[in-house]
Here is the input.
Amino acid sequence: MIADNLVVDARTGRRTTWGELVQRAVPRPTPTAHVVERSVDALPAVAALKDGGELLVVAAGRLDEALAEELRTAGFDLVAGDEVRAATSPRAAEDGRVWLLTSGSTGRPKRVGHTLGSLSTVTGELAPRTWLCPYSPGTYAWWQVITLGLGVPGQDLVLVDPADLDDWLTPALEHGVTAVSGTPTFWRRTLMRHGAELQKLPLEQVTLGGEPVDQAVLTQLTEAFPDARVSWIYASSEVGASIVVHDGRAGFPVEWLDRDVPGRPRLSVVDGELVITSPHHGTDASGAEMTGAVRTGDAARVEDGRVLVTGRLDRDELNVGGSKVSVGAVRDLLQSHPEVAWAAVRGRKAPLVGTMVVADVVAGPGSDVNADDLTRWAAERLPEYAVPRRIKMLAEIPAKETLKSDV
Here is the structure.
């Protein structure tokens, strides 16, 4: 069912509805990769899925020539505005198939297959809301918000492109936004840039995910939006939205581990890695279902009755002179400092110990905290081998088009 909700282009103020988009939609008979500069450019293709077709949406900035040729070889026509580059291995469309590209953080982006149904993980009725969607078109998070507006009555959308996010608050106020979904990096940049201005925005729902979520950012959002429910979500292209937490605390209750509940993901921690068996799984590029337990590649640890997801497993653990250091734990500690807006931690090669801990830090608005202050502060709270040996102070929080930190 297509919900006749409103869709607003924040840049132009243009308003339309999904019903109008469906009426104007022209489905394509062949698998199509729509290459778009802006979110609104993808909406007609999404609406056309009502009548079938096979679709992949990709932001123009993500499409290099190697990926373009890979998609054409896989049977996709590339459509960018009026320009069409035909598939080099044509095939019939698989009606209703929606393809996503993974982030490529561990190599080349991979295709993961879904349907509108597997992307629509909301169950039950929702209170009417107007959502801000700041995500890059075609990403899993983008599809989550788009399918919410497409299929759930009362969920209007205001689309803001990543290039326009420096002043997203203005269109949010203008169009009555009451719910916002973003990454932790998006929210940290927002808190740093807009501060007290955020009190003007009467949010009812604040959602964050896509990166590790620590207690500091949850607390800051709860204080900035005291009337909103603050939720963090763990989701990926492969396993869908698998963890949703509303209690304002980092991590999820340890009691959720190894529980079998019909229709819900099964969560486990195996050798420090989050493992998920999900009913919302996608397919691989060949169309084979991703059934069974999926090793997510994300590090997880149990602490004080909570399971904390701290980052990519291959980046989270450092060996400093034979001692193990969790990058996520050091990062979370630095971000818990009252004058720190954001931190990133990594290892750097060093003589004698092999690896030393280093960090990039952005101070909060009006703060004059410096690297020496933070080193002393960390030394009081961490084992000696885990204290960052070099801290570089940055002027602003770096971010990629995906709204994740560019580190």
